[in-house]
Amino acid sequence: MRFVLFHIGFLPVTIMDVLDIAVMSYIIYRLYNFLRGSRGVQMLVGLVIILIATGIAPLFQMKGMTWIFENLRTIWLLAFVVLFQPEIRRLLIYIGQSRIVRFFVKVSGSRVIDQVVEASLALCDIGYGALIVMARETGLRTIVESGIRIQAEVSTPLIISIFNPRSPLHDGALVIQGDLIEAAKCLLPINEEDFGHIEYGTRHKAGLTLSQETDAMVIIISEERGKISLAVDGKLYKDLSENELRRLLIEGYRLADANLQNDRKS
Q1: 3-state per-residue secondary structure call for 179-235
Q2: Where in the chain is the domain with CATH 3.40.1700.10?
Q3: What is this structure's pTM?
Q4: Which of 92, 159, 189, 226 is the most exposed place for a label (fewest CB within 10 A)?
C-alpha cells in the first residue's frame, strides 16, 4: 500500500512521486551543466521545439504537419543518436569517471599517463613550455571554468598542439580529468607568501600553489631549461626523467584509488 503525502486535486502524491521528481530534476540539472556552452544545447533546443510542434499540430488540425511528424516518429530515436553522438559519447565517459562508479569499478589511467608522458618529452625536445594539471579526487571546477572548455580525449598530438606558441590556447594550464582534457588556457592561483622565494618562474609557482590547495598533480615543463618537474602535495620534483615522471604519476593515481577505497570502507 502506497503512503500518500497529500493530494493535488484528485491526484495522490506519494513519497516515491516526490523522490522521482527530485531524481529527475537532478538528472536534468546535471545534463544541462554538462551540455552548457556546447553545440549540443542548440540541437537539444531545436529538438524540443520540434517535439512541441508535434503535439500542437493535431490540436490545430494541421493535417500536413501531423502527417509529416507521424511518419518521422519511427526515426526519432535513430536521429537522436546520430545528432548527439559526440555528446552521448562524452556523457558515457563522464558517467564512467564519476565518484559513484569509481566506488565499484577501478578505473585505470595507464593510457592517459602514457599519452601525457609522451607529450611531456616531446614538448621538452621541441622547446615548448607547458603546465599540465592531472586532477585526482579534488574538484577543479573553478579552475576549469577559468579556461576554455575542450572535453576531448587525451592524446599526445592534441597536447602538443595546444602548447604550440602559435596556438591561442598555449598560455595557462591544461586540465585533465580522467580520460578527458577538460579545458585549456586555465588560470591557476599563485601563493607568493609560500612560494615567492623559489628561483623558478610563474609556471612552477602556480603548479606548487595548486598542488598545495588540491590533490592535483601538476606537470611543469620549463621553456628555458627544457626540464620536466612535477608538483604534488606542495612539493616539487625537479629534472625528472621519463621513468621517474611515469612512476610518480602511477603512484599518485594509486594513492588516489587507495584513498577512495578507504572512504568507501569508512
Answers
A1: CEEEEEEECCCCCHHHHCCCCCCHHHHHHHHHHHHCCCEEEEECCCCCCEEEEECCE
A2: 106-265
A3: 0.61
A4: 92
